[in-house]
Amino acid sequence: MSLIKKITLSESEIPENWYNIVADMPNKPLPPLHPGTKEPIGPEMLAPLFPMELIRQEVTTDAWVRIPEEVRELYKIWRPTPMFRAYSLEKALGTSSKIYYKYEGVSPAGSHKPNTAVPQAYYNKQEGVKRITTETGAGQWGSALSFACQLFGIECEVYMVKVSYEGKPYRKIMMNTWGAKVHSSPTNHTESGRKILAQDPDSPGSLGIAISEAVERAMQDEGTKYALGSVLNHVLMHQTVIGLESITQLEKAGDLPDIVVAPFGGGSNFAGIAFPFLRFNLTQGKQIRCIAAEPASCPKLTRGVFRYDLGDTVGMTPLLPMYTLGHNFVPAPIHAGGLRYHGAGAIVSQLLNDGLIEAQALKQLECFEAGITFARTEGIIPAPEATHAIATVIREARKADEEGVSKTILFNLCGHGHFDMASYEQYLAGKLVEHEVTQEEILASLAELDTPVIG
Ligand SMILES: *Cc1c(COP(=O)(O)O)cnc(C)c1O
C-alpha cells in the first residue's frame, strides 16, 4: 500500500474568510489602555498608526472576516501551503503516534509572516498610505513586509535590531532586494533612538527599542503608517488561514488532531494554526490540546505575570493586557530571534489565563537537537523558532508512548532555517550554549513595572 506523504489543496480551497476567535471566547480580551491616563483607548488613538480597516478588525467581534479578493489572489503565490505526514520522523522516534506538520516556509520570505504582511499592505494602499515603518528582530517580519509593500508600490522603512543587522546581513539584503530601506536600530534620527544611545552608545538594540523608533516615525508623518508582525488581534486573525487550511487537509487524511503545537514569539503563528481548532473546543465541546512552545530564556507564558504592559521600551505604544516579563526585559541572545519578545498578545494571554491553552518552555540545545533530527528524517531544515515546536512534539510523542496510547499531533513548521546556518554551525561544532533565565532576573525585571495590574 502506498502511503500519502503530502496533502495538498487546490487554489480554490484557500479560505474565503479569516477566523476571529474573539467571537467565541468565554471571556473577551481586555481593552488596551492609554499609557498616560490608563483609560481604555478609542480608535482615534490608533488612527495615526494604522489604517481604519485594520483598527476595525482589531476590535471586531464578528467570527468571520472576508479576505479581499485581491489578497486571496496574492496568497496564491505560496498558498495553499502543503501539509506532510512525518512518517520518517515517526519511524526514527519509534512512536505509535501520528505526526503531521503544516509547512509555511514555502512563502517568498520563508515563513508565515507574509500571511499578514500582504493584507496589511493592501489595507494601507486602499487608504492612500505612501510609506510603512516597522521593526524587525531576526529579519523575518522585515522581509515579509518589504515583499508585501513592493507588491503594492508602498515605501517600506525597517528598523532592524543592531545585533541582527550586523549578524544577519543576508536578511537585510533580502529586504533591500524588495526595495526597502533598512536602518540599524538604535539610530540617531529618532528621539527614541537618541535617548537610548545617550545612555549606551554601544547599545545592541532590542525589539522594544526598534518598535519605539518605527512608531515615532509613523506618528510624525501624515502619509506614513506603522505595521506590526505579531501580538495584535488583527495580525493573529490573518494567520488563521494556516489552521483553516489544515482542517481541510486533515479531513482529506480522515484525521483530527489530539494535540496542536506551535512555537511562540508574540503569538501569531500559534494563533494561526491553533485558533481554528480551538473553535471546535469552544463551540463543539472537543478537547484538542493546543500547546505554545516558548524558549526557556524568554518564558513569558510559563513564568511571566498577567498584567498590563507596554509593547515597546520607550513607552510609545498603548498598554496591553499580556503575559509579560516586563518591557525592559532583555532576553539572552539565543538563536530563535523571533521568540525574543517580552510579552504575548491580549487574546492568547486571556486564553492562557482561562486555562484554554497550554504552554511549555524549552532550552535551546534540546530544540536544536530536535531540529537536526527533523532535518535528517524529513529533509527540511527548520527555522530555530520552529525547532521549539518540534522538540515539544517529540516530548509529547514520547509521553504518549510511555502511557501506552497513540496520539495524533499536528505542528506548525512556520519557517525554514536557510538564513540561520550560523546557529546550526555553532550547534554542530558543539559551541552552542544553554540559556535559562533565573528567577532573580525575572523578579528584577517585573519589579520595575508600574503599569496597572489585572483582577
Ligand atoms: C516571527 C517568527 C516567529 C515568532 O512570532 P509569532 O508571532 O509568535 O509567530 C516564529 N517563527 C518564525 C519563523 C518567525 O518568523
Please give the count of helices. Answer: 19
Number of strands: 15
Shape category: globular
- Major sheet: 7 strands, mixed
Topology:
Elements: E1 6-7, E2 17-19, H1 43-46, H2 52-59, E3 64-66, H3 69-75, E4 83-85, H4 87-93, E5 98-103, H5 114-126, E6 131-136, H6 140-152, E7 155-161, H7 162-167, H8 169-177, E8 181-185, H9 191-199, H10 207-220, E9 224-226, H11 233-238, H12 241-253, E10 259-263, H13 268-284, E11 289-295, H14 300-303, E12 305-310, E13 319-324, H15 346-353, E14 358-362, H16 364-378, H17 384-402, E15 408-413, H18 421-428, H19 439-447
Parallel strand pairs: 5-15, 6-7, 6-9, 7-8, 10-11, 10-15, 11-14
Antiparallel strand pairs: 1-4, 2-3, 4-5, 12-13
The structure holds pyridoxal-5'-phosphate.
Structural notes for this entry:
The structure is a single chain. The protein has 455 residues and is of the alpha/beta class. The chain has a domain at 6-13 and 68-110 and 234-447: Rossmann fold (3-Layer(aba) Sandwich). It is built from 19 helices and 15 strands. It has a 7-stranded mixed sheet with strand order 1-4-5-15-10-11-14. Helix 5 runs parallel beside helix 6 and helix 16 packs across helix 17. The longest helix is centred in the last third of the chain and has 19 residues, at 384-402. The N and C termini lie far apart (57 Å). The mean pLDDT is 96. The structure holds pyridoxal-5'-phosphate (PLP). Pyridoxal-5'-phosphate (PLP) binds at residues 111, 113, 140-141, 230, 263-270, 338-339, 383, 385-386, 414-415.
